[in-house]
Design brief:
Layout: E1 15-17, E2 25-26, H1 28-33, E3 36-37, E4 45-49, E5 54-60, E6 65-66, H2 72-86, H3 107-113
Parallel strand pairs: 1-4
Antiparallel strand pairs: 2-5, 3-6, 4-5
Length: 115
């Protein structure tokens, strides 16, 4: 096991190979699945794999905090921004897809210009 360094002497952080992390340490993705976030804590350990080119930081589960919820004002701002991304500036129609940035207009308006 090349990346087994539970004391952290070799890599600076306690390091484990892929799938060998001890219980109580989770990645950000694993925390997110449990509706948690690191909450400002520093990584407690890391996982290295693919010859050390890939790293995943591990956080302590007991120090994790619940994910924050967006306020109603933030939700309204997000909805407004997403609606703006679907509104064509040429024909002013709201489309069921996001307007492509490379053309700057909906597919109907873009095809009319190319005819």
């Amino acid at each position: 096991m090349v990346f087994y360094d539970p004391t952290g002497e070799r890599y600076g952080l306690p390091t484990y190979p892929y799938k060998f992390a001890p219980a109580g340490l989770l990645t950000r993705r694993q925390l997110r699945e449990r509706h948690l976030r690191p909450g400002g804590q520093e990584p407690a350990a890391q996982i290295l794999w693919r010859r050390g080119k890939r790293v995943a930081y591990l956080y302590r589960l007991d120090l994790a905090q619940p994910k924050r919820r967006a306020t109603p004002a933030q939700r309204a701002a997000i909805d407004k921004a997403l609606t703006a991304r679907r509104t064509c500036p040429t024909c002013a129609e709201i489309k069921p897809y996001y307007i492509p940035r490379r053309t700057g207009s909906c597919l109907d308006c873009t095809s009319e210009v190319n005819r």
